[in-house]
Amino acid sequence: MSDNLPPSTEAPMPSKPPFWRDEEKRAIVFQVVALLVVGLVSYYLYSNTQANLERQSIATGFGFLDKEASFEIGESIIEYSAADTYLRALAVGALNTLKVSLIGVVLTIILGTLIGIARLSSNWLISRLSALYIEVMQNIPVLLQLFFWYAIFYEAFPPPRQALNPIDGVFLCNRGMIFGVPEAHAAHPVMGWVFLVVLIAGYFLNRWGHKRQDLTGQSFPALRITAAAAILLPGLVWLLYGAPTAMDIPALRGFNFQGGVTVSPEFSALLLGLVIYTSAFVAEIVRAGIQSVGKGQIEAAMAIGLRPGKVLQLVVLPQALRVIIPPLTSQMLNLTKNSSLAIAIGYADFVAVTNTMINQTGQAIEGVALIMLVFLFFSLSTSLFMNWYNKKMKLVER
């Protein structure tokens, strides 16, 4: 009986490949080996550095941050004196870097967008002037531009005793621009908080207005309401506090001005150099983004009676932003990192303050590590925000 049974149709079990031919296992082995090599190299560098520091009797660690800094800083957003600690001095430098970076990014986006749009203008003169600006500013190194503007501020303006006074309470000299500001009053912080609350409420009101328009087709003037409230409500607070009008007017005392607010030549030169240099690249990004929008979109918008300004605002820019945002993020990061060149013209940014700290304490490794961490934090924060905005603006596929 058994001899008459049909042969088995079951396929033979495939044999396992040898270890060295199994791609998954090889990948695991390669990763483990790479990790071991990186670990060994890191351990060698660390142990070698520690041995050299001990041989030269150089202390390590961040304990020096609690010691007295013993040096002044020309510009500071927060109160600072030479009797403060190195930690507070570093905080002053970080805030100075943050100040020039934030203001620079805003001005760069505005100027770059205007020049990018002007580059596509049908007016021959405007288009050629924009192209000239882009070509010239892109090809002059940013450091040379910083030196140029710094020299302009010191050579073009007179000393404080011969300061220019174009407007009452405003003075221009080689120490910077000095102008009057309202004296400190309890109403000012309250007005600031009210203004901030109005902006936050306006953001949610604008979102609600868009949802309402999607459902009903009726627009809601959220921006106009927010703008009116941002003016009227802080003004109402100002009136409730007695409408304070006292001003802190600068006055010449000895060899310099006292009172008011001073915008230093170092800050002005750094800001101008970074904005003018980076805006040339942003202008090309904006131009490319606008040209990526199909002509049919523009023709359709004009066919329904939209004016050129509305076509740009409602049709072109919303679509162009999806092309503009990724390279724009890189330029924002470049501006922030290029701010470290401030040390060349004497602006007290984080790099300059840290360099002074290193010269006094000899803690070079710790100082360089702090510079790397601070700029890494600024860059990652910018990237996270822009990635969120890019995700928000991308096309939603159905």
TrEMBL record:
Q: How would you describe this protein's topology in the membrane?
A: Multi-pass membrane protein
Where does this polypeptide localize? Cell inner membrane; Cell membrane
Keywords assigned? Amino-acid transport, Cell membrane, Membrane, Transmembrane, Transmembrane helix, Transport
Pfam families in the cross-refs: BPD_transp_1 (PF00528)
Q: Where would you say this protein principally sits, based on its record?
A: membrane
Membrane spanning stretches = 27-46, 100-120, 186-205, 225-247, 267-286, 340-358, 364-389
Return one GO MF term: transmembrane transporter activity
InterPro entries according to UniProt: AA_ABC_transptr_permease_3TM, ArtM/GltK/GlnP/TcyL/YhdX-like, MetI-like, MetI-like_sf
Q: Could you give one GO CC term from the UniProt record?
A: ATP-binding cassette (ABC) transporter complex
Q: Where is the ABC transmembrane type-1 domain?
A: 94-386
Tell me which Gene Ontology terms the entry assigns under biological process. Answer: amino acid transport
Q: Which family does the record claim for this protein? A: Belongs to the binding-protein-dependent transport system permease family. HisMQ subfamily.
Please give the name of this protein.
General L-amino acid transport system permease protein
> What is the species listed in this Swiss-Prot or TrEMBL entry?
Malonomonas rubra DSM 5091
Lineage, uppermost ranks: Bacteria, Pseudomonadati, Thermodesulfobacteriota, Desulfuromonadia, Desulfuromonadales
